[in-house]
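Aim 2, interim progress. The first record below pairs a target sequence with its structure tokens.
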Amino acid sequence: MSLGLLPDQIRPLTDDERFRFRCHPGLSCFTECCRELELALHPYDVLRLARCLGITTAAFLDRYALVEQGADDLFPRVFLAMVNDGRASCPFVSTQGCLVYEDRPAPCRTYPLGRGASLQEGGTVAIFHVLLTEPHCRGFAEATEQDVALWTAGQGLAPYHRMNDLLLRLVQHPQTKAGWRPTASQCQHYLSTLYDLDRFRGKLPATTPDHDQLASNDEQLLACAVDYLIREFHGD
């Protein structure tokens, strides 16, 4: 998430391990973690932010997102476009804090933790966490003790994890592990389907099973979009 983290500032964290951390406006470093960072967005992050701002997913992508794809990236990656203020600040940060706090992205909610997930045989998901101890952060000097479960619950991460983990079936598909790589047009299809969910909703045939429910339920629609791409790319 943040730029320039050193290896000794990232360490594995077991689920039952406790750590001290609390962020609040009284800290001298308040909102410092909202600057000079690379904030990758999942499709659910874009969806929540677009709804919070009262704009379409297409408008959000146009105004607030950057799309990049490195040589080692399977699919394009979407990042929040930072403000050109000399500090690469988040466009939604203010002196009072986050302007979209109730719908802030998963990386913001998860910090100071990092979370990794991998799809195992049988469809189970293996999870691991790391603790990110940035030198500027005064939150670690607070007396409040946390563990992974407490922090996850307190930050409202359950729907984010649930929706983000749906993508594992696509990005860690067996054919991908065997060497499959998407074409340029498939990469664009990936973006327009998962990140511009309003566009995908508009293309749903009226004969789609549970059409009316999908038209009104964003989470079910995103799950439908993942299934659609798996069928399109892999025939499953």
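The second target in this work package is listed in the same format:
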Amino acid sequence: MILGYGLREFAELDSTNEEARRLAVAGENGPLWIASSRQSAGRGRQGRVWHSADGNLFATLLIRPSRPRHEWAQLSFVAAIATADMAAHYSPGIAVKWPNDVLLEGRKLAGILLETMGEALAIGIGVNLKSYPPDTEFPAISLAAMTSTPPSPQQALGLLAPGFAGWYESWEKSGFGPIRDAWLARAAGLGSRIRARLPGREHVGVFEGVDEQGALLLRDADNLHVLAAAEVFFG
């Protein structure tokens, strides 16, 4: 691991984010990476079950950011960029999808889950290295589907962790601006029509980017909508 960051590895956990929660309750603030070979109760955003097959990467960074708490959600963009950079070492066709997914050839390769835990933040990252769930609303994929030699979880984390540290240092020093620019340079669907689903309603329009806080900018025939949370679909 990189200087200043700890690492705890497990054969199996309920989830790496739950282990981060237990450590945070015990007083740990990190920075600490938590990785597990298997998860018995992995989860994604909005409480969804996360496919947790052997050979994939399940890792959480427990960290205490120095920037104001209302900016912490921006670290999902930092995590997405670092994960995309890692995956690009093994395959072309990598992009990021708002708010916190990484795509390979337009299909979901990785997901990110941020959870505040007292004075610390847990940044959970799951990457489909070896396998992926076949029946998901947004189609998924693994690195193994594109290359005969996908990385092991240890190899993937060995690239992801220092990559995250570099982008995190940029965010700590310079704020969201450079992160936003780097994320937009990798953004899937930018300038095209998307569907943004919210509870009880949908917006369809052109994806114009993200604002200074990371909210989605979607323009339809009548308005520019600024969406802090939504499920995004292309086409």
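The domain at 6-185 is CATH 3.30.930.10 (BirA Bifunctional Protein; domain 2). This observation will shape the mutagenesis plan for the next reporting period.
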